[in-house]
Amino acid sequence: MSTANTETMAGLRKPAPADAGLHELIRERWSPRAFSGAPVPRALLDSLVEAARWAPSCMNEQPWSFVLADRYADPEGYARLESALMEGNRVWAGRAPVLGIVVARLAFTRDGAPNRWALYDTGQAVAQLALQAVAAGLRVHQMGGFDADKARRLLGIPEGYEPVAALAVGYPGDARELSPELLARELAPRQRRPAGEWVHGSRWGGAWAPAAGGAVSET
Amino acid sequence: MSTANTETMAGLRKPAPADAGLHELIRERWSPRAFSGAPVPRALLDSLVEAARWAPSCMNEQPWSFVLADRYADPEGYARLESALMEGNRVWAGRAPVLGIVVARLAFTRDGAPNRWALYDTGQAVAQLALQAVAAGLRVHQMGGFDADKARRLLGIPEGYEPVAALAVGYPGDARELSPELLARELAPRQRRPAGEWVHGSRWGGAWAPAAGGAVSET
Least enclosed by CB within 10 Å: which of A4, A147, A152, B135? Predict the structure, then answer.
């Protein structure tokens, strides 16, 4: 298993140390803390939105909403979103030119019944957005560390809609501009649980090793 | 806006009728009902698992688990998963060579506290799996229509883990083998809400049309 924290410090790549076969877009996606302050062209932001838009969802409900703020287009709006971030995230995310709050509608539009896939499907939309960002040369860092109540109040998010995550969006920046502590986290190898811990064959706890042979990769 | 239900009926493509700039992998992903019964090589299934594995998650919790069954490797296990599908899905999903149940662990491993991103992050993992499937020439159709209690019982899914979605995985099949009703749904244009309905600029209800210009695409 190689952990390729190579490349220049600006635009640090941290490809997943995964077996051959993983698509480049998925391999190259990661969540940096070092963002360039460079503005993001509107057409690229639109392509990110479009990628989210075409995600699948239960009954095609599309329960996701985004509140987005571009520092260059609306500094006050950007400051509003920034102020909802936890301090530990604000120090690095506040350099990204675009911030977002991801919101899930909790009930089905058609009948008001609870949508138990609201968060699940919203996650799918943001996953597509984050991969499209890689295609556009951008990076997305999602954060659970924001004040959802404050975001709701400051942004006017209505009842029935849940602020789920915050987003920082921008071009990769120079990791050397991070604090020593953040730099260490930026350079740390990426880690995941071995697939064998969470892929089950045919029943919970069943080995996922059918006749076709070959163990689940644990790289 | 073009709705390209073209190509041959076997391996029907339904690319998202989206603006230029959307990455091919995202554009080509869709959820067909026509699956070929052809077996899926284990290496490709492993690449799907690997794509899920490298998804981001809050605190790197990786709350997702999958129960997978390959009809050719374990017909009994496959039948168990198949029996948890709603009848309306079983008629087409039961032709796919691989079925899965997606499961989310609801509490953080480190301290047992509720993980409010459990479903959100699990959705991200499956979104990456579904896009890797496109790269592998496969398709994934996710289903909310399964009996979660039955899946829990038949598969032995423990308390604290929630069965969220079912998956059908396989090569694209011949849509002409579907019932007339399913064929009509298979051929229907793909639709999504205009981004202008759910992308908000800087606050809820704010127009997402900053200075950089250009309206959000509604194609």
Answer: A4
What whole-number distance in Å separates Cα of residue B22 and Cα of residue B10? 24
Same domain, B117 and B217: no
Interface test mutation site (partner B, options A30, A54, A169, max chain B beta carbons within 10 A): A54
Asked whether the beta carbons of A17 and A4 are under 8 A apart, the reply is yes
Note whether B173 and B211 are same-domain residues.
Answer: no
What does the pLDDT profile of chain A (219 residues) look like in tens digits? 333 344 445 678 888 887 768 999 999 999 999 999 999 999 999 999 999 999 999 999 999 999 999 999 999 999 999 999 999 999 999 999 999 999 999 999 999 999 999 999 999 999 999 999 999 999 999 999 999 999 999 999 999 999 999 999 999 999 999 999 999 999 999 999 999 999 999 999 999 864 444 444 433
Residue to mutate among A89, A139, A203, with most B CBs inside 10 A, is: A203
A29 touches chain B (CB under 8 A): yes
Prediction pTM value: 0.92
Q: Does B117 touch chain A (CB under 8 A)?
A: yes
ipTM of the complex: 0.92
> Rounded to whole angstroms, how far apart are CA atoms B148 and B163?
6
